[in-house]
Amino acid sequence: MARLQGRTLFFITSPRSPFKMIPEISLLVKDFTGKEWNTTTQEEFIKELVQDEHFEGTGSPKDLAFSARDRINRGPKALGFVDLKPSIQLTDAGKNFIDEDLCEEALLRQLLKFQLPSPYHTETTNPDVTFCVKPYLEILRLVYTLEKVTFDEIMIFGMQLTSYTKFDEVIQKILKFREAKENNRGSYKNFMGKYRDDEIFSIFSDDIQQGNTKTRESKDASVAKFIKTKASNQRDYTDACFRYLRATGLVSISQKGKSLYITPEKKAEVEYYLNNIDRKPVFIDSEREYKAYLFNSTVPTLYTDDRDNIIQELSVISPGISYSDWDIFALKKELKHKLTERKAGIISKQVKRLKDYKEYADVIGTFGDIMNKAYYDTPLMFEWNTWRAMTMLDGGNIVANLKFDDNGDPLSTASGNMADIVCDYGKFALAVEVTMQSGQKQYEMEGEPVSRHLAKLKKETGKEAYCFFIAPKINESCIAHFFVLHKLNLSSYGGESVIIPLELDVFTKMVEQSGKATYEPSPEQVHKFCKYSMEVAKSVNNEMEWYEKIRSKALDWLAA
Question: Is this structure's pTM higher than 0.70?
Answer without folding.
Answer: yes
